[in-house]
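Run log // design_07
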């Protein structure tokens, strides 16, 4: 898909009966092949949600980022590409008329929240997994989309940052703390909890129709 002068690669999965689409915003050097995000995406598809897993960086940019680790923190760049994906989906004959949710992990959570602030009529829900919503800055005050923040109980510093960011969100929000989980939710059963929480949040909010 085109995004600000570059072309990005992604995987769009559309179930037979679709109630909405979730765009995944990866962060911290991750991409569309992230096993954790693909696990969550599979659960969302089973819940009737289309999913778009995309690389927010080109292959050349990823090579640079592996050396410098700075592009993964360029929230302005990442958010512009999430917005480009949301706009691109509107032209898709399968899902173009559906509402969108954004799922963000790590620094991708900030990009997802900025995108929600910029596309409030299209983005109907946001879920952050172990995210850094604080990096969205002043955009937090413009996020009216219902937002679910999921953090592991043992990820103490990120938990603090999520609590501070939640206080700035303009719309409905919930902070869900997964007991015993660390930043990557590698502990048995924790990623399953993330998937179920995300699925229920998106199904509840993304399927809502305009009155």
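design_07 sequence
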């Amino acid at each position: 898909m085109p995004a600000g002068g570059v072309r990005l690669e992604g995987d769009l999965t559309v179930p037979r009966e679709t109630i909405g689409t979730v765009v995944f915003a990866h962060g911290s050097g991750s991409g569309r092949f992230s096993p954790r995000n693909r696990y969550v995406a599979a659960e969302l598809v089973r819940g009737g949600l289309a999913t778009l897993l995309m690389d927010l960086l080109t292959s050349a940019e990823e090579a640079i980022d592996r050396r410098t680790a700075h592009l993964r923190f360029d929230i302005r760049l990442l958010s512009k590409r999430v917005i480009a994906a949301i706009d691109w989906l509107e032209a898709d004959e399968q899902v173009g008329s559906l509402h969108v949710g954004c799922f963000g992990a790590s620094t991708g959570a900030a990009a997802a929240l900025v995108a929600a602030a910029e596309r409030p009529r299209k983005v109907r829900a946001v879920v952050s997994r172990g995210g850094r919503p604080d990096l969205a800055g002043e955009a937090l005050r413009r996020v009216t989309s219902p937002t679910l923040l999921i953090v592991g109980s043992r990820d103490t510093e990120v938990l603090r940052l999520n609590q501070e960011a939640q206080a700035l969100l303009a719309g409905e929000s919930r902070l869900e703390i997964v007991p015993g989980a660390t930043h990557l939710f590698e502990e048995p059963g924790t990623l399953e909890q993330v998937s179920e929480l995300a699925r229920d949040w998106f199904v509840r909010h993304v399927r809502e129709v305009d009155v």
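The chain has a mean pLDDT of 92.
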